[in-house]
Design a protein that fits this description.
- By secondary structure, the protein is an alpha/beta fold.
- It has a single domain, classed as NAD(P)-binding Rossmann-like Domain (Rossmann fold).
- It contains 9 helices and 7 strands.
- It has a 7-stranded parallel beta sheet with strand order 3-2-1-4-5-6-7, sandwiched between helices.
- Helix 2 packs parallel to helix 3, helix 2 packs across helix 7 and helix 4 packs parallel to helix 5.
- The protein is globular, with a radius of gyration of 22 Å.
- 33% of the residues are buried.
């Protein structure tokens, strides 16, 4: 058995140091390229007759803001919501972005928490359209301070339906249409995810587990389309940090952009060629720091932040 020569051991450390510096430099250069130098590529999906972008969860937050950005960029829209009155209002808001464009804005209604949705029927209803972008945005976490054995089973099932089952089966229903469209140009399916799928955030295991599942599903679906032949149909997971939305009543901050601002970063990440992206640069920095440190330290920081958050929630309840 070979023995380690202690005389040559010191020579290894400079090499390891050089490799570490090169690794960090590559990360910095890649960050600058992706967020500030890379040509924006969402326009590649504006091909064919009346290109459509489908967006789920479009009545609020990131979904509604993304719809407005894509409409302004020249996409026709298929929007999803579960409240028809709110959906009609959003359609009017979207069309007001560019009234003279003549672009189309359709919608469909589905309660994402239910288990009896006719996914195939929804897919057939839109199968004749030229859908080039498919944004699985819908999601919900309903933060609380209860462990899973203290939660109602129906509540947990609803969370799993909203964040995992609905995007999975809706994408499945539209795959034949998306494949046909991809024969004439690039098509992309985007799964809007969350840092919670990678970091141990307390009390959101159904939500976080769903996002982790969708992250892996996205990567495998991309491989599925290429195992037997080349394909223009791509799948990407957009990893999202904190965003100020209609359901998240907190102030905006450098690391917590408003949904309108975030939507622009999200759209600019479309067509990058990567399987997983972090659209917002500040989110990207935070993610790199947290996931780059030892798990014990990362968990300690996240738990400290969580305790502070739940303390504020309790104080807020007492002052009502």
């Amino acid at each position: 058995m070979p023995t380690l020569d202690m005389k040559t051991l010191p020579a290894i450390f400079p090499l390891l140091g050089l490799l570490f510096v090169l690794y960090c430099l590559w990360g910095v250069l890649d960050f600058i390229w992706f967020h500030y130098l890379r040509p924006k590529s969402y326009a590649k999906f504006l091909h064919g007759t009346k290109p459509y972008a489908l967006i789920t969860g479009a009545t609020d937050g990131i979904g509604r803001s993304t719809a407005k950005v894509l409409y302004a960029k020249g996409f026709n829209l298929i929007l999803h919501g579960r409240n028809e009155e709110k959906m009609k209002q959003v359609v009017e808001e979207v069309k007001a972005v560019d009234p003279a464009s003549g672009l189309d804005a359709k919608y469909f209604i589905a309660d994402v928490s239910r288990s009896d949705i006719d996914f195939r029927g929804i897919g057939r209803h839109f199968e004749g359209l030229n859908i080039t972008l498919f944004v699985n945005n819908v999601g919900a976490s309903f933060p609380n301070n209860q462990r899973i054995d203290e939660l109602d089973e129906e509540f947990i099932t609803n969370i799993l339906n909203i964040n995992a089952r609905f995007p999975f089966f809706l994408t499945r229903a539209f795959l034949p249409t998306l494949r046909r469209t991809s024969r004439s140009g690039p098509v992309e399916v985007v799964f809007v995810g969350s840092f919670a799928g990678d970091v141990a955030v307390p009390f959101v295991s159904p939500y976080a587990g769903s996002k982790a599942l969708i992250k892996r599903v996205s990567r495998i679906l991309h491989a599925d389309e290429r195992v037997l032949s080349s394909s223009n149909l791509s799948f990407v997971y957009a990893n999202v940090g904190e965003v100020q939305t209609g359901t998240m009543k907190v102030a905006t901050a450098l690391a917590r952009p408003h949904a309108d601002d975030y939507a622009r970063y999200l759209v600019e990440s479309f067509g990058s060629g990567r399987r997983s992206v972090i659209p917002h640069p500040v989110h990207h920095i935070i993610y790199a720091i947290v996931t780059g440190m030892p798990e014990v330290l990362a968990d300690y920081i996240v738990l400290a932040e969580a305790r502070n958050l739940f303390k504020k929630m309790e104080e807020s309840k007492k002052t009502r």
